[in-house]
Amino acid sequence: MAPSQSSDAYMFKVIGLIVVGIFLMTFGTYFLSIANLPVLQLPDVNWALVGFVTIIGSIVTFGSAFAVSRLA
Prior knowledge:
The structure is a single chain. By secondary structure, the chain is mainly α. It is 79% helix and 0% strand. It has helices at 3-34, 47-71. The protein is elongated.
């Protein structure tokens, strides 16, 4: 395996972890908003739009990482 392939795989693992973290934060915020905790009052959020933006953002992140790995 060439060194660039190893660094590409490492980069995609790191980006994958970042994207998974963003999904977990989104789901955590969603579950906190539906829990009706008296201490935490979150505004009404359009969760379909948040999910759409999260998925599109993930696709763009992986796409740009792929493009950068091919250009380098």
